[in-house]
Specification:
about 625 residues; alpha+beta; 7-stranded antiparallel beta sheet; 25 strands
């Protein structure tokens, strides 16, 4: 959800200088002109809008709008380099009217900004929300921008993806197609700031204290100066020294209103529910193309689950398609979709998506050009085998097969092991989410090597023998554990991991370093690739609305879902499962007592012993959606 996702479209390599040709900066400026307008909303507030208009008058042109809290810059006469540095040049070549708008209360727009402003059904009079602001903007554009063809599309990534969902809820008859991409959807269950009730501390604190959360009492064109100065070499060390959420709250000062609102709602209550757009997506009118990344560290949840909600609440004939590629947050909008971290995908999946799916989608609905007969309901890239698959529905038909944890650290398709495995979870020494030493949360951790975690005593590791056949899974993965703890609360982090053969390397990588010198190419032999991992706050095992404590020593079921997976474990690889109780500083530390974690003090954090049972009467396992 970070600002860089929107700005990614303007920060890619500049094309080489040379003769004018379609799509370069000279061509764009020769064929477009720019207008900046303050568009009046129904309540009198004006929203800053940059409009890039084709000079061509031989035909009418469609409108494509992005609404953003991350700035519609550059302001003034300069053009956004998005129009020639990225695949947006395809829309310029197609002569779209490109519109970028600062949302209410951000940058050069008037009004008061509200994070994930709730949608208001049945608005009356001057009541506003992000849907009404979109409606009023479209009305103004169609009335005042010359040469438009009366058809409008909307797209956006991350927070702009949320505003794209809001556009779909506007009900404007001219809005024909929308593409919410990695859309912020549910900040409690799985997007950005919480996963299954666990607070994603590093992302939330970093996002708001680096400037986003500072108020804009009047329109501004320059970014606020970050007031908080912290050591920025090692986030694990820095966040551990800061300590409790109470200490982080003190550091935020008086300006970050949303941080205070967020920690005032530690359970899933009405405040959270009214901010979830899935509650309002019935009877959506425009065609929808939901896009996301399998390895999106921020809004993977939102893409999968917005698509499902629209599918469930609308007629079977409504156009609602899904694309999930092997991407980090926003990677599909960039120029390189060949890899993430050490893991390669075999082709440039980003440009394929842009050329074969997104641009044709908008051309069809806004220009009446081409056809979409070859676009499947769900277009999903399967990592491991590195191939796109098309499905008539998602999740696809799969066989739910449980693989059981075993006493000896093995995994078996048959229940019947004995005993339990245990570890001591110590909040003073939490399990790091990555082996890297850095400050900004990495995007690569979603496919990181997990060997560092396997070596810790507070991480349980279970794995199969070497696979003799491919194992393909597609859909949500269900964790089903039987546990006991010595405290009254605990978190459970479960990871699904692909263990590469000991002699594995890609064709274009050199052999591993066998000298006494450190460094060299990363050793991929035995690589433990994170395929999917997530955290669950145990107090919510019965209800996210009404948390309950554990009874110390009592065997208790903890069952939850990981976000959908699309992966093939190749013959010769192994499947691994890891279980642990911290993931720091990605997620906040649980004091391991049933108290309000946001109010906990240093003395409230205690060690506890956690047992994961795997006997026949108390089996623990992972339920996998196995595809043939």
């Amino acid at each position: 959800m970070k600002r860089f996702v929107f700005m990614l479209l303007g920060a890619l390599a500049v094309l080489p200088a040379g003769a004018q040709h379609a799509g370069d900066s000279v061509w764009v400026k020769e064929h477009y002109y720019k207008e900046e307008r303050q568009i009046r909303m129904r309540d009198g507030v004006h929203l800053f809008t940059a409009i890039y208009i084709p000079k061509d008058s031989s035909e009418k042109h469609p409108v494509l709008i992005t609404r953003t809290p991350y700035s519609a810059a550059p302001y003034g006469v300069a053009f956004t380099p998005n129009l020639w540095n990225t695949y947006w040049k395809s829309y310029a070549e197609e002569k779209y009217i490109i519109v970028i708008q600062d949302v209410r209360g951000r940058w050069m727009s008037e009004g008061q900004f509200k994070d994930i402003r709730p949608f208001i059904p049945g608005k009356k009079g001057h009541e506003i929300d992000e849907a009404s602001d979109t409606y009023d903007t479209i009305d103004w554009l169609l009335e005042n921008v010359p040469g438009n063809n009366g058809k409008v599309g909307a797209l956006g990534i991350s927070y702009p993806g949320f505003y794209t969902t809001m556009a779909a809820l506007s009900g404007h008859p001219a809005l024909k197609a929308v593409s919410p991409q990695a859309p912020v959807t549910d900040w409690f269950h799985g997007d950005d700031f919480h996963h299954n009730g666990a607070f994603f501390l590093m992302d939330c604190f970093g996002f708001y204290t680096k400037g986003f959360g500072y108020p804009h009492p009047a329109p501004v064109s320059t970014a606020p100066v970050q007031a908080l100065k912290l050591p920025c070499a090692d986030n694990y060390n820095t966040f551990l020294k800061i300590g409790t959420i109470r200490n982080f709250t003190r550091l935020t000062g008086d300006s970050l209103a949303f941080w205070k609102e967020l920690i005032a709602h530690p359970q899933y209550d009405g405040w959270w529910k009214e901010r979830d757009p899935r509650n309002y997506v019935a009877q959506i009118k425009p065609a929808v193309l939901v896009v996301g990344g399998l390895f999106d560290a921020e809004d993977c949840y939102g893409a999968w689950n917005l698509y499902k909600a629209i599918e469930q609440q609308n007629s079977a004939t409504h156009f609602n398609k899904l694309v999930m590629g092997p991407w980090y947050h926003g990677q599909w909008a960039g120029n390189d979709g060949t890899r993430l971290g050490h893991v390669q995908f075999g082709s440039n999946t980003a440009t394929w998506y842009q050329e074969q799916i997104e641009v044709p989608f908008f051309n069809y609905y806004l220009k009446g050009k081409g056809n979409l007969s070859d676009l499947a309901e769900a277009n999903i890239f399967f990592s491991g085998e590195n191939k796109w698959h098309q499905f008539s529905k998602w999740p696809p038909v799969a066989t739910e097969k449980e693989i059981y944890l075993q006493q000896d650290g093995g995994l078996s398709w048959q229940n019947g092991s004995t005993g339990f495995s245990e570890y001591v979870s110590d909040p003073a020494h939490p399990v790091p989410y990555t082996q890297d030493v850095h400050y900004i949360r990495t995007r690569d951790y979603m496919t990181d090597d997990q060997r560092f975690a396997s070596r810790r005593a507070d991480v349980l590791t279970f794995e199969t023998d070497t696979l003799t056949d491919n194992l393909t899974i597609g859909g949500p993965v269900t964790v089903d554990l039987r546990v006991s703890i010595t405290g009254s609360d605990a978190d459970f982090v479960v990871k699904v991991i692909d263990v590469f053969p000991d002699d594995f390397r890609y064709a274009d990588t050199p052999p591993p370093n066998k000298t006494r010198d450190a460094g060299g190419p990363y050793p991929l032999g035995g690589y433990q690739m994170l395929v999917r991992g997530d955290i669950f706050r145990g107090r919510f095992r019965e209800s996210f609305e009404k948390p309950v404590p554990f009874i110390p020593g009592k065997v208790t079921q903890v069952k939850f879902q990981l976000p959908d997976v699309a992966h093939t474990f190749q013959k010769g690889h192994r499947l691994m499962i890891q279980v642990q109780s911290s993931w720091f500083p990605l997620a906040d530390r649980n004091p391991q007592q049933f108290i309000n974690i946001y109010e906990a003090t240093e003395k409230d954090f205690i060690k506890e012993t956690i047992r994961i049972y795997h006997d026949e009467a108390h089996p623990s396992g992972i339920i996998l959606p196995v595809l043939k």
